[in-house]
Amino acid sequence: MRRFFGRPCSLMLVLQFVCSLVLPGLGNTAFASDDWKNEFNTVCGQTQNALAFSVDELKDLIARCDELKPRIKKLDDSQATERKVFLQRLKMCRDFYAFALGTKVDQQ
Amino acid sequence: MKKTLFFTGLLLLLFASLSLALTGVKKRRPLPYEYGRVELNNFSEKAGQIPVVFDHWLHRAKFTCRLCHVDIGFAMKAGTTGIKAADNMQGYYCGSCHNDKTAFAACTTTIPRQNSSKCSRCHSLGRTAVKQYDFRTFTQDFPKGRFGNGIDWEQAEATGKIAPIDFLAGVSIQRDALVVQKDFDLIAKVKGMPEIIFSHKKHTVWNGCELCHPEIFLGVKKGATQYSMTEIYDGKYCGVCHSTVAFPLLDCQRCHTKQVQ
User: How many helices (H) and strands (E) does chain B have?
Assistant: First the structure.
């Protein structure tokens, strides 16, 4: 055992093997957790332009908000505060798009 | 006999009118530094702590309404957010800024209970807490207003006395600047009352869009939301902010500004 780990090359190989098993998983987890947040930032980062969007664009944004909601709801209890905060933020953003859509439809 | 009955009746009438007059509760008008103050006690006392006293005057001088009520997620009605110490420790709500970097740390586990001077900066209801900012000193050069905090916050920003931050790294979304919204008139219902010139620009700069629409104002089209002063005094529509934090409803001429023709 000592001989095996005593060689730098072998140690590197072992580390490489361990990393190849563990890191892709970690990477995916990080990506998955950032994924909904990126989508949230993209969707809800446009509210200031809402009244300039077309009916179809607004409908698309509302649909994307509706798709995001179950993904945020799925956050586990260790992320309960994050879930609560982002559900509230998502609600405000979705409601505003729905409001802008209602205004557009009324104008037509 | 008739005289006795008359005086007894008179006395009864006097007592009745006095007792009726005393049942009305006159609300004390808050002092300038108390205006906009919020007491938070969803969980404090249950956790053996004194309720939190939140000073709106200081926070509104440093941050826009939108930053706290949209990006950070504080509800518009006092006590409905339900903030726990754990939320702050994880960097949410008060902990978004009170993290020992932007401002002193809130509800950190590293503060022993015995060292209550740190906790009592916020958990201070009924106590004289030592605050970092004193209202009188902080606002001494600010343009004066007639009611509320006694500060004209709009002028305070226009003259550079305050520069409220609208972006918090790690919390806010990077977004394009809001298109400047046009001001518009609102016709008063009472004849002879000057019309209101609503500063949409000022309101959107501080509040963004989604803070007011659709939760407070359902319609964007002029006249879509019909409301009265009675409803506003009840804390609805303009009264959501203008009876709590922004200049109060007593200041009629701040809104009813258009000259009567």
Answer: 10, 4
Q: At what angle do helices A55-73 and A80-107 cross, to 10 degrees?
A: 160
Output the pLDDT for position A30: 47
Interface residues of chain A, partner chain B, Cβ below 8 Å: 41, 44-52, 81-82, 84-85, 88-89, 92-93, 95-96, 98-100, 103, 106-107
Q: What is the ipTM of this complex?
A: 0.83
Answer yes or no: do B153 and B34 share one domain.
yes
CATH at B201: 3.90.10.10
**pTM metric for this prediction:** 0.82
Q: Greatest CA separation found in chain B?
A: 87
In degrees rounded to 5, what are phi and psi of residue A35? -55, -50
Q: Which residue has the tokens 């945020």?
A: A72
Which range marks the domain in which residue B87 is found?
A: 30-173
CB B135 within 8 Å of CB B32: yes
Pairs of residues, one from chain A and one from chain B, whose beta carbons lie less than 8 Å apart? 64
In chain B, which ranges are continuous DSSP H helix?
A: 2-23, 56-62, 65-66, 85-89, 116-119, 135-138, 153-158, 200-207, 229-233, 239-242
The structure tokens 């950070």 sit at B72
CB B257 within 8 A of CB B194: yes
Q: Residue range A41-53: average pLDDT?
A: 95
Residue B93 has pLDDT above 70, yes or no: yes
Range with lowest mean pLDDT among A3-7, B109-113, B128-132, B203-207: A3-7
Residues B200 and B167 in one domain: no
Same domain, B72 and B191: no
- Interchain contact, B220 vs A51, CB within 8 Å: yes
- Domain end, chosen from B129, B147, B173, is at B173
Q: Contact at 8 Å (CB) between A79 and A29?
A: no
Q: Please, are residues B35 and B149 in contact by the beta-carbon 8 Å criterion? A: yes
Mean pLDDT, chain A, integer: 81
Contact B209 A96 (CB under 8 A): yes
End residue of a domain, out of B130, B149, B173: B173
Return the pLDDT at B114: 58
pLDDT in tens, B127-161: 887 788 999 999 999 999 999 999 999 999 999 99
In chain A, residues with a C-beta closer than 8 Å to the C-beta of B92 are: 81-82, 85
